[in-house]
Amino acid sequence: MEGRISDIGPRKYDTFFPPVIAKNFGKWLYHEILEPGVLMHVAESGDKVYTVRCGGARTMTTVHIREICEIADKYCGGHVRFTTRNNIEFMVTDTDTLEALKADLKSRKFAAGSLKFPIGGTGAGVTNIVHTQGWLHCHTPATDASGPVKALMDAVFSDFQDHRLPAPVRISLACCLNMCGAVHVSDIGIVGIHRKPPMIDQEWVDQLCEIPLAVAACPVAAVRPAKIELDGKKLNTVAIKDERCMYCGNCYTMCQALPISDGEGDGVIIMVGGKISNRISRPKFSKVVVSYIENEPPRWPTLCATVKRILDVYAENANKYERIGDWAERIGWEKFFELCDLEFTPQLIDDFREQAYFTWRQSTQFKFTPGAADAYKGAEAHAEASGGAVTEEEKALVYNWMVEKTSKPGAKTKFYFNQFLELFPGASPRKVKAVLTALVADGKFAYWSSGSTTLYGLKGAGKQAATEEGEGK
Ligand code: SF4
Ligand code: SF4
Q: For ligand 1, which residues put their CB under 6 angstroms from it?
């Protein structure tokens, strides 16, 4: 082992501990939030640590960072830390220093009068908004990141400083669908979206791109190699099937000659209801509730007003400790849209893979209020196009076949779709799919998706798909 280098990454964390943290490491009894932005942690030894949390910008100047260091030197023995949401945390061990620190932080202001170190971001309020790179330096953003976040934090700042909300609210922003900002599990997520296919800069494709890479990057096979003649020269290029494109921007990541950013096409969506905590209910993904808001720099007024409205309605209506997603699920997403005065549009319907075939209620979509009537009509039209009306005889044929196949001891309990095709010689797969879908809707069959394929069985029969992969082949 002699000469082996093991200290390769960032310096080991415990060498930076303040003495009180090092002494009580792993021996903390409990913590309390004394007031918005101030926490007290109590250790088994009786030691206490008071933490003052301040909002921090994600992009800071060295001048600002030096001031943070100066405060940390003055009150905290030279220690400071940042939370995962870019809050700055100063830790002290006695109440006199705590009060002096708070007074000092409150007194520090920028030239225009705004607080340099706003105290807050704890408990049942809004904590710092995490965000991605945006127009600062990423290559695929559909919106800015720091800009809308600054405007939004100004709009909801009182909720950073107090605890009026029923539970914590995590707001995040990712400026494209790559989502490097964990927006999918935030109470309120803002995501930049493109709405137009990439442009093809024919002159440069051949010179800047590995065409096979650009082709392979497209998840929906909308990009294919092509050849053109330009100014008398034969060039290799790509062609894009616009109707397939879902505007993800992957091809642009591979090929700079396929720019996707567009002043008219780009904007943001709002997602709601995600969380990582398992209190009250399991962790969940956020759902899209506003399908498009155009970019409105520099203050993004529509975005700010919409998020503020959701927060206000949530504060007024939810039960204590209920996160936004728990509240929306308890009252029903129909009611959520109604209370928050949000329009339900077809783009909100989650039709990824099979979900929407079986029940529209697996996502935010609904069918009982006037706003959803059109979407529901669309669903009926889709069902018609997917195989037409299903008769009781057709359902009975499949059901009885399944009962017979599964009734023998040790028999398989689930079957692949193509095995049902044999029951309807000459019928289209859509027709057979419609019969199976009807049996699922009737509650007689259940389906299991292994991620790559779907199996069907009698409802309640057999084990879960994950343990049954391969059965029925
Ligand atoms: Fe870049 Fe997309 Fe991440 Fe924004 S979310 S920083 S555009 S990769
Ligand atoms: Fe394919 Fe996405 Fe490029 Fe559209 S934007 S062509 S879906 S890779």
A: 132-133, 138, 140-141, 174-176, 178-181
Q: Does 218 sit in the ligand 2 pocket, CB within 6 Å? A: yes
* Amino acid residing at 193: I
Ligand 2 geometric centre to CA of 89 (Å): 42
* DSSP helix/strand/coil, 130: strand
323 contacts: CB under 8 Å, gap ≥ 6: 167, 168, 169, 187, 273, 275, 277, 279, 280
Q: Which residues contact 441 (CB under 8 A, 6 or more apart)?
A: 358, 359
Atom number, ligand 2, closest to the C-alpha of residue 221: 1
The preferred substitution site among 59, 130, 131, 133 for testing ligand 1, maximizing ligand atoms within 8 Å of CB, is 133
Query: 243, 246, 254: which to mutate for ligand 2, most atoms within 8 A of CB?
Result: 246
Q: Count of residues for the chain?
A: 473
Q: For a pocket test of ligand 1, which of 180, 191, 194, 252 has the largest count of ligand atoms closer than 8 A to its C-beta?
A: 180
- For residue 208, the CA-to-ligand 2 centroid distance in Å is 17
Q: Which ligand is nearest to the CA of 197?
A: 2
What would you measure as the largest C-alpha separation in the chain, in angstroms?
Answer: 85
Tell me which residue has its CA closest to atom 7 in ligand 1: 141
CA 215 to centroid of ligand 2, rounded, Å: 9
- Element (DSSP H or E) covering residue 303: helix 301-317
Nearest CA to ligand 1 atom 6: 133
The pTM of this model reads 0.74
Tens of pLDDT, residue by residue, the chain (473 residues) = 788 877 788 888 999 999 999 999 999 999 999 999 999 999 999 999 999 999 999 899 999 999 999 999 999 999 999 999 999 999 999 999 999 999 999 999 999 999 999 999 999 999 999 999 999 998 889 999 999 999 999 999 999 999 999 999 999 999 998 877 778 899 999 999 999 999 999 989 999 999 999 999 998 899 999 999 988 899 999 999 998 898 989 999 999 999 999 988 999 999 999 999 998 999 998 999 999 999 999 999 999 999 999 999 999 999 999 999 999 999 988 899 999 999 988 778 765 544 445 554 445 554 445 544 555 455 555 555 555 678 999 999 999 999 998 888 888 888 888 889 889 988 887 788 889 888 988 889 987 765 556 788 898 776 544 434 333 33
The contacts of residue 183 (CB under 8 Å, 6+ apart) are 172, 173, 174, 189, 190, 191, 271, 274, 286
